[in-house]
Amino acid sequence: MSVHLLDVEPTDVDASALGLVVDAPAPPTLAQLVIETADGALTLGVLGASHVVTARSGGETLTEQVSCDAVAAGGDPLPGAEVLGPYRFESSTQTLDRTEFVAEASRLKVQAAADGWICGSFPGDDTAVTVLFGSSLGHGWAWQSWHLYPGEGTGVIVKTRSRWHP
Fold first, then answer.
1. Any bridge partners for residue 145, and if so which?
2. Which residues contact 103 (CB under 8 A, 6 or more apart)?
3. How crowded is residue 153: how many other Cβ atoms within 10 Å of its Cβ?
4. Among candidates 14, 19, 1, which has minimal Cα distance to 91?
5. 64, 124 contact by CB (below 8 A)
6. Confidence at residue 42, expressed as pLDDT on a 0 to 100 scale
7. pLDDT tens digits, residue range 57-80?
């Protein structure tokens, strides 16, 4: 739905330090998008180069935080896959050369102008972005995230995909 130019230094600057915590209290966000349906709401929040999602459906609530603070909040290092009852999570990490990385950052920023999308862009490098997309499943939600970490001549992208059917 929008690109937010955040005038803060990102706090999560190392893709390998990311973790996942589910159902912990949601920390304050730097930017957020709320998607509402008759059944509930999905809040997509950008943290310091990471994210928090709060999903509500049918009177139930789930939170997901992917950040460098997640382990300290009771979570685990970022798994490749996690299944907790009706919640499904997958992640992957990819290192791209600088040209491919810049192209992917540009593509995601353009896509973030569409409904259901939010992008947080951090100072210092216009490819340092966190992007989220969410959609309703009728009874439940699906969301994805892209965490882009620019480096010297390369860049690392951590992608996540989540589904929740309470």
1. 132, 160
2. none
3. 9
4. 19
5. no
6. 98
7. 999 999 999 998 899 899 999 999
User: What span, in angstroms and rounded, lies between the C-alpha atoms of 57 and 121?
Assistant: 29
Cα–Cα distance measured from residue 35 to residue 32, given in angstroms and rounded to the nearest whole number:
10
Contact predicate 144/133, CB 8 Å: yes
Q: CB neighbours (10 Å) of residue 2? A: 12
Q: Which pair of tokens denotes residue 123?
A: 């100072």
Residue 139 CB contacts under 8 Å (≥ 6 apart), including other chains = 39, 57, 58, 165, 166
pLDDT at position 48: 79
- Average pLDDT (129-145) is 96
Could you report the per-residue pLDDT of 87-125, keeping only the tens digit for each?
999 999 999 999 999 999 999 999 999 999 999 888 888
- Residue 17 to residue 33: CA distance in whole angstroms: 25
How far, in Å, CA of 76 to CA of 161, rounded?
A: 17
